[in-house]
Amino acid sequence: MALVWMYTSLLIFHFSFLKPSRALRNYPENEVTLLDSMSALGDLGWEAYPPEGWEEISVMDERNTPMRSYQVCNVMEANQNNWLRTRHIARDGAQRVYVEIKFTLRDCNSLPGVPGTCKETFNMFYYESNNPSLWFIKESQYVKIDTIAADESFTQTDVGDRVMKLNTEVRDIGNLSKKGFYLAFQDVGACIALVSVRVFYKRCPAAVLNLARFPDTVTGGDSALVEVHGACVDDSEEVEAPRMYCSADGGWLVPIGRCACRPGFEESKDHCQPCSPGTYKAAASDEYCSKCPPHSHAHQETADECTCESGFYRSRADTPAMACTKPPSAPENPVYTLNDTSVSLEWDPPQDGGGRGDVTYDVRCRKCPGDGRKCSPCGSGVRFLPRQLGLTSPRVLVSDLLADTNYSFSVEAVNGVSDLSPTARQQVTVNITTGQTVSVILKERKSKDSVTLAWHGPDRPDGAIVEYEVIYYEKNQRDQNYTVLKTKATVMTVEGLKPGTTYVFRVRARTDGGYGSYGGEIELETSHEDMLAIGDPNQSTILVVSVAGGVVLLIFLVACFVVSGRHCGYIKAKQDPDEEKVQRGRVKLPGSKTYIHPHTYEDPNQAIRDFAKEIDASCIRIERVIGAGEFGEVCSGRLKLPSKREIYVAIKSLKAGYTEKQRRDFLSEASIMGQFDHPNIIRLEGVVTKCKPVMIITEYMENGSLDTFLKKNDGRFTVIQLVGILRGIASGMKYLSDMSYVHRDLAARNILVNSNLVCKVSDFGLSRVLEDDPEAAYTTRGGKIPIRWTAPEAIAYRKFTSASDVWSYGIVMWEVMSYGERPYWEMSNQDVIKAIDEGYRLPAPMDCPVVLHQLMLNCWEKGRSDRPKFGQIVNTLDKLIRNPSSLKDLANVSTPDLSVGTVDEWLDAIRMGQYKENFASAGYVTLDAILYISLSELSKMGVTLVGHQKKILSGVQSLHAQGSQVQV
Ligand code: ACK
Fold first, then answer.
1. What is the pLDDT of residues 254-298, one digit of tens each?
2. Where's the SAM domain (predicted)?
3. For a pocket test of ligand 1, which of 752, 755, 763, 775 has the largest count of ligand atoms closer than 8 A to its C-beta?
């Protein structure tokens, strides 16, 4: 017994030595304590039996407060079975509880003289019950939780020092369902001090996440997660139902869904706060309140939209984030061009678009009798192209107007808020008098092949008369062949007519404002014999076909001749510099407008004055350098001429330090270009010669030169688009050849492309073929010629004609169809000359329709008279465009060299050598490997251009076609 006491005292000693502190017990936030023996102030009230087993003792903590604990140490006697049972512990809704015990345990070896029955473990049990005051529970009713062993027992050391170790063990009890439970500790012969028992359960503490509030949640009984639905915090709304899972160890997992602060509120930590004045938030979103957009305000808190300032509006389609805007100011600088009874109106956009980008234009038309009566709406007979209201571009074509009538057109600029403003729309008005007819007063058979006409102009011309246009054609032949003559005089002798043939003539005036209406048709038959001079009353006929003409007298005719200072017999269209002739038919009649070589002028400056408009340098704004020309830089910029729209232009300048000859040569391009007026010829806007640098201003072509453009867009166009490109170039060349102008350097590099894919022939400098063209090479005869583009007769003996331009055109066709491939590839100039002489011609480019290659071959006929004329080329291309199925037949794919043995050689042969590495790294190293390559594989290996994919796949096809011949 004395020994037992001694051991027990040792336990107590060590227990007090440990000084467990109640005050220091801070439990984790997610644990709820159901029982803590250390915090009990009085008796714990636990049952111990038999009475000589577990013993309750009191020790003092660091504050000298008694603390309860139990100990047992009946190690000297065998067959121990000592039970200690707690009071009923209410489970408080928890399904799983944890029991944390702290204890010390003596090592049996450290107790001298104890028998072998000494134990070093004890058992822990529980019993679930709804009854909180059971006084007895049978041992067999308990459920065992575990056998508890010490991690550390304590041992007396040699020096008499005792090392004390406090063990802590935690066990859990799951799936509790009754009101509570009892815990029990069974000792079977160990020396134990049970220092503390704490029973707790875990919960997920209340939390706010994604603006959703989640309540305190007790963890699940087994290890399953507990799904919890959150509630949105004040002033927030559910974006997606918020949910989270409470895990068994008291942590929140897997947040799903969220709430967002409602309009007018923004998130601040875990709540929503009102938007401050001057800010707003329009939607329930994660965003913060934003400053009010321009021209709007929010005086109060919680604004979900800012109110527009007075005079500013928000259209229904505008979001609250957009600035408030106002209606636009009026359109500006209206200009118009009259053509008979059509008028083309253009204007500048309003200075102030009201802060919006959706400005459109409405055009109102009124007819004004001009006799003091009020103007009235034009009615539905007038046509507007593209439309009358809601025009997106600042231009409209108005047609089907009445001749010789006053019209007033008002153009209003409208934007998305125009309808919201109570003020009247701002507008600009143009008054126009439509074309007046010309009265033809004399028609006279002059000779068997000429006729003289005289007329007087409109009574009230719309601006100064610039010239008259006479159109004539053989009766009933108008569709095939008609001729237009222009003159500044009011009398004209038309020559070169067929004897004994009836012609129809019509005359109209052109004023500053545009073309007037044609007068009525005049029919006149040429005689079979030469006539005598004018004045023979038997030969002359006086006829008034005007609707507007007044009384017409023969005297007028005479006066007219006197004023014009011309004798009738002297009037020959081809000799009068004021007259020009544009032929639109097959027969080239005398008097056609021909190109005048600037060198035929004694004073080259006169040529410039005659053909190019002088522009004030202040109207030009140079923006950036786009290239280098022979004489200096080429820049792009803008040109704003008074009462004209601002346009983009290209500006070629003459570099400083030039000689007089260089200046002449530089400006010669403008004197040539200025003579042309065709949609497929680059248009000259004017020149700057009065100040330095001297400049040539042309229209701006957004896509630069055709060769580079094609290379950049390899494979991107349809065949019809390519034919459209070719048609444009051929049409421009037809115009030049009709004017007897020979280009000499027609090549894709000298064609410019605008943003609408319209191609225009350019590069008209006099010295350009000699100096400017990097392709030009010296021939044996000393001339510098772009060999690959030039016809053999031009290379051999400088025979440059429109037929040699046709040869070059064939090469341009080949360049276009092969997307900018170099003609004859890397063959030397000498080899090209030799090959052409021996009859070799370029093969059809990949995927080129047979008809187009045939047309190329026709252009490359050795005999120049066997080549088609540009007019025929245009007709052929027009037919192809009208009948696209004729383009379906593709010429044979340019066959790769049959002797290819490797993939690299094959890629070179189909001119796709740039993809060698792609093929090699994708594992295509033998020809048989590529025989079944697919489009998607090509894309995967980085061949993404459609044109290149096509080339490669047709190359594969030709490999198939060669079949057995290919060494695989
Ligand atoms: O191929 P590009 O971009 O097109 O580079 C050359 C460069 O200037 C030197 O001639 C470009 N260029 C020439 N005239 C014009 C023009 N009217 N519009 C746009 N680019 C032009 C040409």
1. 778 889 999 999 999 889 999 999 999 999 988 899 999 999 999
2. 898-962
3. 752
